Amino acid sequence: MAFELFGATNKTFKIMKKANITLIAVLLSIIFVSCNNTNQSDWEQERMELTDRIDNTIDDIDDELTEINNDLKDASEDVAESLEEEKEELLDQKSALEEARDNVADATEEAWEDTKDWAEETYNDVEDFLSGRNG
């Protein structure tokens, strides 16, 4: 045998063969797990990005609520009534976004597409509302 030239015996060859088979199995397992994690990472990445967008809009609403609360301190009765209505509308929009954020956080991979569609629709509705107010 060719291995005997290098001092290897048949027993050594069998051990090396088993080691190679084990190494190949480990590598295949790593590749398989990596491929599965890539798919999972895609939806988790989308979930993270959507959560960030929602959080940023909630922060914007909080900033507007702070402005309204400051304006209320010096507002006349008529202006205060209008500001209170505006404040309630903003609180409703914030509540909708918080619900969407909670649903996104609780989403499973299996339900992700439906949850994402609903949360994005809610997000877009709130963004449209805010644009209409400021535009």
TrEMBL record:
Organism: Roseivirga spongicola
Stretches of the chain forming a coiled coil according to its record: 58-110
Recorded superkingdom: Bacteria
Listed name of the protein: Uncharacterized protein
Record bears the keyword Coiled coil: yes
Key words, A-Z: Coiled coil
